[in-house]
Amino acid sequence: MKILVTGGTVFASRFTAEYFAKEHEVYVLNRNSRPQSAGVTLINADRHALGDTLKGYEFDAVIDVTAYNETDVRDLLNALGEFKSYVMISSSAVYPETLPQPFKEDMQTGANSLWGDYGTNKIAAERYLQERVPNAYIIRPPYLYGKMNNLYREAFVFECAERGMPFYVPNGGTMPLQFFDIEDMCRFIAILLERQPEQRIFNVGNPETVTVREWARMCYGILSKTPEIRNVLFRINQREYFPFYDYGYKLDVTEMLSLMPDVKSLERGLAESYEWFAAHRDDIRRKNYFEYINDNLGE
């Protein structure tokens, strides 16, 4: 297939481009501000100023990893020539926290007080895409992780383990987290493109959640270490020392599993993530967690 991937320079979009480039002809659409992956063809342009850049191309599939609002989708669709399939990466942030959990695809989307504009912009992007391309696929992941993850999530816990530090958890560390490995996301996109199921919106993710404590122990375990878990009892902003918001939720991924029942285990995915991290430490977008911990939580 001839596939267009929006972005293609960091984490989800870069991994997606490289994954499909193994077997297909992949074009990436970005402004060439970062090094490009081998094996892809760059279309050097801003998605908001495309003009006739894309009119001469015909794509079997468009994988839109970097659509965050309605304008993103509109500008790309207005610039595209012929294409057969369209897949948009949306988010679990489209579900209001007031809905019963686990969230199902047929539930009404709406504002989530935690995610704010990010969630409502994704909703607007979904709706516009559905109006313009009724047969488009929309996938809603929880927290993505895995190889090429430059966000300071599992990388932060790996560094805590490497330093032999305790791991500080908010509110007892019982909050549930749901993850999805980036490679599994690409595998599922490939299934959608191949099988063309009638359902158009899919929650995706590991079927099980893990608590913050369990997740930390898994990350330390990759380095054959066991963390000393310390609970932060007093009320402070957990984002000063911890990489997730105070919001536990779960997606119902039954429909995804009916098409792709074999999901990568979290232990295996974290092992692969650490292997990538160890070889690409300079690519991580770090935050000042350690400084805050040393100044406010350390002994």
Describe the structure.
The structure is a single chain. The chain has 299 residues and is an alpha/beta fold. It has helices at 11-21, 70-79, 117-132, 154-162, 182-195, 212-222, 254-259, 266-279, 289-297; strands spanning 2-6, 25-30, 41-44, 58-64, 82-89, 137-140, 143-145, 167-170, 176-177, 179-181, 201-203, 210-211, 229-232. The protein folds into two domains: 2-145 and 181-203, 3-Layer(aba) Sandwich (Rossmann fold), CATH 3.40.50; 154-179 and 207-249 and 265-297, UDP-galactose 4-epimerase, domain 1. The strands form four sheets. Strands 3-2-1-4-5-6-11 form a seven-stranded parallel sheet. α2 (70-79) links the parallel β4 and β5. α1 crosses α5 (182-195) and α2 (70-79) packs parallel to α3 (117-132).
The average pLDDT score comes to 96
Q: What is the percent of helical residues?
A: 25-40%
Structurally, the number of domains stands at 2
Radius of gyration: 20 Å
Q: So what's the overall shape?
A: globular
CATH class of the largest domain: Alpha Beta
Main structural class: alpha/beta
Task: Name the helix and strand elements from N-terminus to C-terminus, one letter apiece.
Answer: EHEEEHEHEEHEEEHEEHEHHH
> What's the total helix number?
9
Any idea of the CATH topology of the largest domain?
Rossmann fold
Poorly predicted tracts of residues? none
Largest sheet: 7 strands, parallel
Name of the CATH architecture of the largest domain? 3-Layer(aba) Sandwich
Distance between the termini: 57 Å
CATH superfamily of the largest domain: NAD(P)-binding Rossmann-like Domain
Strand content: 15-25%
* Largest beta sheet: strand ordering: 3-2-1-4-5-6-11
